[in-house]
Amino acid sequence: MSTQGVSGGSPGRPSTESGSTAGSRRPPVPRAAEARTTGTTIGDRPSPRSGGTFAALRVPNYRRFMTGQIISMCGTWMQTIALGWLVLSLGASGTLLGVVTAAQFLPVLVFGAYGGLVADRTNIRRLLSCTASLQALLAAVLGILVITDVVTLWMVVVFALCLGLTQAVDNPARQSFVQEMVGPETLPNAVTLNSVTMNAARVVGPAIAGATITLVGNGMCFILNALSFAAILVALARLDRSALRPNPPVARAPGQIREGFHYAVRTASIRIPLTMMVLTGTLAYEFQVTLPLVARETFHGTAATYSLLTGAMGAGAVAGGLLVARRRLTGVRSLVAVAGVFGALLLLSAAAPSLVVLVAALVVTGAASVAFIATGNATVQLSAEPRMRGRVMALWSMAFLGTTPLGGPIAGAIAQVFGARAGLVLAGVAAVAAALIGLASLRRIEARQVAAPVAVAPVAAGFPAVEHAAGKHAVAVGATAEAACSTATATVHPAEQAPSGKPSARPLPST
């Protein structure tokens, strides 16, 4: 999902990739500075004004795109339910069901970085049209195979692999496209509304899938999902292209994937959220493994119990997402705080003495889950240079979705050995550990800044960290670290400055 704006030097838009005004030059500054000049610092706090809960929907392009996305996501959840049921109906075991799941998400882990580079090199709107068409074709083919009763398990595995390959490109492109549509000021709100949409679809899609499978058969779910992509294609075709802010495609050059990794590693406001998401994405977001076990083993429930727990998290995610959307929540400090709350709520859920208490705890946990994902996503996007955004968001998708094949077996094994509640304990510990890692990283950066004077660069025009006073000052060389942190949004190492020129041009369960 992406954002909108006007290409070139529109108001509030930097006219160079480095974020400075046209023709301005920055002096070199020491390595001690770790933050970026893209409008998000490692210590950003939520802005008290965000334009309201549905601020992003006031952007016509985003409203059109979101309408198509809602329809398509319902179809995607229908397909998710139908795929799992299809694998089991073909006589496969739970292990083979895990293989199919791994086949879908492994391409995101293995090829996600290249998918992000493809997004950086191409026009994102056209790329999304291509990936939507391919996914529609895949769903239609599998649906026909199921309806004609010729489908076999190897065909399903091939389908999952091909679907994963398209998602490796689609995920970073879709997330980068949000900022093309709504701009950096409204991006946190748009990201949160995306999460709300995904969780609402998680409630509606499976319900439609259950009725469809019962009335007309499993294959029709894939056909309906294929048709749902028409909504995305129509939305993309109806966008006002003059109001988009596409970035010039990055020219082909050797080592661009490696460059993206190095860029993410040396940029603190990207490195820290990615590190936190790798840990939580691997061990905390494995609810498709932990919740069924808790429902069956701990509370001796049925599939209805599992549905109740999943619905509780989904409802909490929707309600919490709408609350979070009212505030502009970005920055590593905010992410650390949200991760700590998320982990504490997971541990509370693990200790729930009754099913009623667990359902109530999962509602609040769902809200914290959306807050963590939305805050991290917005922080990473706002911290990335436009020419790097596709590759950076590919790393985010790899950390969140690509780790699923790794974390699922771990969570399952822990729950099998130590009991079903242990899976939720593992998730809570992982989230708390991620918060502690983020906090330790912030303190190291602060200590480094205190140890060495830094040069302060002005904030990029139009980016949202307006509460800082950087825009009121000229470059201050030799200021103390404390003064620099209070008067500037970011500092940049000379090796991290981008060349001058125009800016170049991006959640399945609850992203």
Account of the protein in words:
The chain is mainly alpha-helical. A two-stranded antiparallel sheet has the order 1-2. Helix 2 packs parallel to helix 4. The termini are close together.
Topology at a glance:
Blueprint: H1 60-89, H2 94-121, H3 124-147, H4 153-182, H5 187-215, H6 219-238, H7 256-266, H8 268-283, H9 287-298, H10 303-324, H11 332-350, H12 355-383, H13 389-400, H14 404-418, H15 421-451, E1 454-456, E2 476-479, H16 481-487
Antiparallel strand pairs: 1-2
Helix pairs in contact: 1-4, 1-5, 1-6, 2-4, 2-13, 3-4, 3-6, 4-13, 5-10, 5-12, 8-12, 8-13, 8-15, 9-10, 9-14, 10-12, 11-12, 11-15, 14-15
Question: Characteristics of this structure?
Answer:
2 strands; disordered C terminus; 511 residues
Cα(first) to Cα(last) distance is 11 Å
Low-confidence region ranges: 1-41, 45-49, 455-511
Number of strands: 2
Total helix count? 16
Strand content: under 5%
Shape: globular
Tell me, rounded to a whole number, the average pLDDT: 76
How many strands, what sense, and barrel or not for the largest sheet?
A: 2 strands, antiparallel
Question: Over the alpha carbons, how many angstroms does the gyration radius reach?
Answer: 22 Å
Order of strands in the sheet with the most strands? 1-2
Structural class: mainly alpha
The helix content is 55-70%
Order of helices and strands: HHHHHHHHHHHHHHHEEH
Compact summary:
By secondary structure, the protein is mainly α. It has 16 helices and two strands.
